[in-house]
Write a structure and sequence with these properties.
Layout: E1 2-5, H1 13-21, E2 25-30, E3 33-38, H2 48-69, E4 75-77, E5 84-88, E6 94-100, E7 106-114, H3 115-122, H4 127-135, E8 142-151, E9 154-163, H5 169-181, E10 186-195, H6 201-227
Parallel strand pairs: 1-2
Antiparallel strand pairs: 2-3, 4-5, 5-6, 6-7, 7-10, 8-9, 8-10
Helix pairs in contact: 2-6, 4-5
Length: about 230
């Protein structure tokens, strides 16, 4: 990476050492001429561990999501908490993944539904059908619900979760009643946590595709309810 300006080499002395310290090269530009004064080098402040936590993992997740969802069906965010990033497809009932550098190499993969979409789905969704879909999922999935107090930034005031092996029809009915008592100001996810020892785009692509395969029937069913 270079910095370019009209400052000549003689006028650069007060920032020369800083640019070199940061690993930045310098180009001087004057009228129709550009000249490299010195090339980029190693950044002496570079921290490999922080790079892996704060940059590498997030970049791998973003690239994987773009590959799986496609650039026209892809969104991401989490500027309110720099340690976190989330990605998802654009549907109201979408597949999503998130990463928090504070949790090291753990990634969440889930089916995601929020606010108005929650009301529209669970006002009409048959609890027995929903239970049947959940009960067929792999045992590492969790059914999670939370009450949304504020949306931007998102703040929760209540959270409940049940692992797939512990799910019963009565618990599903109770969760639906709870969300209704919240006025449907709810966020739900059917999700699993996966630890990746070596973070790479290809591994995240594989995990995203696995979740899509696991959750496709439930996603299609809930999307059908939303389209009614």
């Amino acid at each position: 990476m270079y910095v370019a300006s009209e400052a000549t080499e003689e006028n650069l002395k007060h920032v020369d050492s800083l640019l070199r310290h940061l690993g930045l090269g310098y180009i001087t530009v004057n009228e129709n001429r550009a000249e490299e004064i010195f090339p980029p080098g190693a950044n002496t402040r570079f921290n490999q561990r922080e790079f892996q936590l704060q940059v590498h993992a997030k970049a791998a997740l973003l690239l994987a999501a773009r590959e799986v969802f496609g650039k026209e069906n892809f969104q991401f965010g989490r500027a309110d908490e720099p340690s976190k990033v989330w990605v998802s497809s654009l549907e109201a009932c979408n597949i999503s993944s998130s990463y928090n550098s504070e949790e090291k190499n753990n990634f969440w993969f889930c089916l995601n539904l929020e606010k108005e979409a929650v009301r529209r789905v669970f006002n009409t969704l048959n609890p027995e059908d929903f239970y049947n879909f959940l009960s067929k999922l792999p045992s590492d999935y969790i059914f999670w619900i939370a009450k949304i107090e504020s949306y931007r930034p998102k703040k929760y005031v209540d959270e409940q979760s049940t692992s797939v092996p512990d799910i019963t029809l009565s618990k599903i009915r109770k969760c639906i009643d709870t969300m209704q008592s919240w006025g449907w100001q709810a966020h739900i996810q059917v999700r699993r946590k996966t630890h990746l020892d070596n973070i790479a785009k290809e591994k995240i692509v594989s995990e995203l595709n696995k979740s899509i395969a696991d959750l496709s029937s439930l996603q299609e069913h809930m999307s059908t309810v939303l389209r009614r």
